[in-house]
Design a protein that fits this description.
2 copies of one chain form a homodimer.
Chain A (H helix, E strand, L loop, with lengths): L2 H7 L13 H11 L11 E6 L2 H10 L14 H4 L2 E7 L1 H7 L19 H19 L3 E2 L2 E2 L3 H8 L6 E9 L17 H4 E3 L8
Antiparallel strand pairs in A: 1-2, 2-5, 3-5, 4-5
Helix pairs in contact in A: 1-6, 2-6
């Protein structure tokens, strides 16, 4: 698909058809996702692909699904998706990389990380993933992980890896758009400034 | 351009031809960039487009360029680019959004932000920007901002907005690839796990 068509069609989806997704399609999406950049090529990003129905239901519950309340979106949209992709990032991988000789400061110490690039980079990866999903004719949602511990326990994730969010993937069904979208897109002139932040302001 | 071609062609570039880039092309790129998602549609992401040669040189210096040392990449690649796009994010915008009634917890308090989504979201935006740049036949680099204060002063950025990084943009010239790439891409089996993190491990 044309790049701009992919971007324009991408949106967060919260209702999926039960049709399974071919493993090859998921692998193709993940190989595209692996092309996201990372600070110092630390590559702290990883993903867990979950299709097992019992695990998907357990992940749905960890994302707030309950038997009596199928979320404001009227569906168990996290567990109903045939595939869940759990985005993970290892902060430790960044510290290890930036303790290598070519990344140390002249005084031999690790940089201070004014920007925690592990969060930035997993954002890059998830963005690329969401676009690759649309390019494959599928759709994805996003549920943030609130409590890391139970996810680590459920999926055998080590302590130094953070499960950041769950992206349910499948063929999209008609869903209720997020009420947040009613806020509207902010003006282009607030989004992009020219030469200075305050240019044009008195 | 086809989505997958854009992804495959994208890489960080650190040498640019002096040819200017049409403002319409930059605006087109930025309008695509504005389609990145954000937590609760907070839209804390903003960008400053700098073309003024004096400001570009000042930004280059803040990124470590000196008169006698044109960086390990043998070019003043930050300041030589005809356009610099400074990625900014406002953490405050996220707190304001999540203090609105529909985002408060049942006890009336703001969420704890186990993942600081302002960094994740500006990563999403920068990823989309870098792809849009390639789609426009251009290339971009990335220089992280180390010290926020001087950038805020130079560009009139408010205290509650963080200048995260500078993305020089232009027509690519032959450059020296980052030595970090010699690390090689990590194995697909380390990048993607199936069903559990430790599946397949004993």
């Amino acid at each position: 698909m044309e790049f701009e068509d992919v971007v324009r069609r991408r949106r967060i989806v919260r209702h999926f058809k039960p049709d399974p997704v071919e493993p090859d399609v998921i692998e193709h999406i993940m190989r595209i996702t692996q092309r996201a950049p990372s600070a110092g090529y630390s590559q702290g990003q990883s993903f867990i692909v979950v299709t097992n129905p019992q695990t998907r239901r357990a992940i749905g519950r960890l994302c707030g699904e309950t038997d009596d309340d199928p979320s404001p979106f009227r569906h168990h949209w996290v567990s109903e998706a045939p595939v869940q992709v759990v985005a993970c990032v290892s902060e430790a991988a960044y510290h290890r990389r930036y303790q290598e000789p070519d990344k140390l400061r002249p005084d031999g110490t690790e940089i201070d990380w004014p920007v925690p690039y592990w969060w930035f980079d997993i954002g890059c990866s998830c963005m690329l993933f969401m676009l690759a999903v649309v390019n494959a004719g599928l759709a994805a949602g996003y549920a943030g992980v609130v409590d890391f511990g139970p996810f680590r326990e459920l999926l055998g994730i080590p302590e130094d890896v953070t499960p950041v969010g769950v992206m349910p993937v499948g063929y999209p069904d008609k869903d209720i758009p997020s009420p947040s979208l009613a806020r509207g897109r902010k003006g282009y002139e607030q989004f992009v400034r020219r030469e200075r932040w305050d240019a044009g302001e008195s």
